[in-house]
């Protein structure tokens, strides 16, 4: 038999069906197909989801044990190479991260394939692939794959709510893959605070349905509801400040945005609503609660 034929033909990350050549105290040994029993692959008892016997054919996931030996597990991954998955980050090291694809071992996420600041337990969208060395890895650069995996929006209308997760971020805003497999764009101005993270789940209101079936969504309340919400937030802020604050209609936009995270127009509408209800008044550039004893 040639030297090439004797080489083990399986790689870590492969999902294959192999025959049980023999069993022992540690577990079962699977025929690697080289004709050499020393190449047999161990399926440890702890990695068996059901007992196996000599001659059985079992579907297994192959990985490297701590000693870099090819090892098998009947616990199969939830992803295959080329597939997308929404997975949990297990750990982050100085070399990269590791994510859980449902197999015995975490799969490597190189720093070059990360997006944003990735943290343990964060859920992110990834694609499973093999790097140049033949090792399994994942990438967060999934924009083109998301387009292929998506479908045009149907059965929804402007005003409906959709839930999805962030798969890409640009300076202008965030790209969302919804639970219905629709693609949605969320402009940064439509996000209170203006910040979201990769993999973060959001529920937004449809504001526009494009001809190609993609959506524009917003996380902001509609004006009528936003007015009430903004007014209550300002009222509660006044309560925490003993009924007075150094902000009023003439306060600069930058300060309003920093303190309350809303536009000056929204701030003035909220103040007007509270004054109309008789709950506040303004004097010398300050805003006061009506019931704090000054008026």
Structure, explained:
The protein is an alpha+beta fold and 295 residues long. It folds into 4 domains: 3-73, Beta Barrel (OB fold (Dihydrolipoamide Acetyltransferase, E2P)); 84-141, OB fold (Dihydrolipoamide Acetyltransferase, E2P), CATH 2.40.50.140; 150-218, Nucleic acid-binding proteins (OB fold (Dihydrolipoamide Acetyltransferase, E2P)), CATH 2.40.50; 223-292, Orthogonal Bundle (Arc Repressor Mutant, subunit A), CATH 1.10.10.10. Helix content is 17%, strand content 35%. It is built from 5 helices and 18 strands. It has helices at residues 3-6, 143-149, 223-240, 253-260, 264-276; strands at residues 15-23, 27-30, 41-44, 57-64, 70-73, 84-92, 96-100, 107-110, 123-130, 136-139, 161-170, 173-178, 183-187, 201-209, 215-218, 244-245, 280-283, 286-289. The strands form 4 sheets. It has a 5-stranded mixed beta barrel. Strands 8-7-6-9-10 form a 5-stranded antiparallel sheet, with no helix packed on it. The chain has a 5-stranded mixed barrel with strand order 11-12-13-15-14. Strand 17 (280-283) and strand 18 form a beta hairpin. Residues 1-5 have low confidence and may be disordered.
